[in-house]
Amino acid sequence: MLDGDARRHWDRHGWVVLPGFFPPRETDDLLRWTAEVESWPETPGKWMRYYERHRGEPGTKQLARVENYLPYHEGLDGLFRGRRALELLAECCGEPVLLFKDKINFKLPGGAGFGDHQDAPAYVDFGVEHHVTFATPADPFTMENGCIEMAMDSCQRIIRPQNPDGTVRADEMAKLSLSPVLARPGDAIVFDAWVPHRSGPNRSSGPRRVHYLTFNPASAGEHRAEYYARKRRLFPPECEREPGVDYAAIGKQFNLANPFD
Ligand SMILES: O=C(O)CCC(=O)C(=O)O
Description:
The chain is α+β, with helices and mostly antiparallel strands. The protein is 24% helix and 23% strand.
């Protein structure tokens, strides 16, 4: 799955982009199925819809993320847990992998960016040190719409100095060089959870949607059910929230560098 250049990029930086990973027919399916998930209604106990403030219209909100959707969409499940995706991830990981979590970030026009962060600190207390994420855009990534930006040469397994909100401190980020990832629908991006990354706001007039499927090595065991049970309790989707509970405080681990309410 990885040719020589891609392998070297992965080994050195802990992330890699594979242009045209999905053929055109599967890419068309991906776009159609993304729109289906976007239109799913609020349904307690199933997929998890999260919102952010609508910056253009004070007092209103817009969809920011849907999580835990793969169990409810056979087509997307087949695509992301199909032979080619799993082979690629096993090659990056050095062994077969198991799905840990799945999310779509929508970043609709005006949607906020994500602060400098590593994903690993949000996952380590599930007893797994290593995660790899397979990402694929459903809209072309541009600087204007807030593409993801990945650090170069920075895949060490260390928690970088953090601000109180869990983002990486500016003085630490100043030492790193980041590369914007201008991927397109059908491309695959794989990244290790220790690599610092960020993204800007969406200043364009269209959405910037992307799927993120995070996996862990199979030898570390199955942790998905435990992850979503805890997340549902501490940072549930809006339709499951109880009045008077400060989810921003108790669910902080699950909202690391995210712009969600
Ligand atoms: O989708 C983006 O712009 C960045 C997402 C990200 O870093 C995250 O969800 O942890």
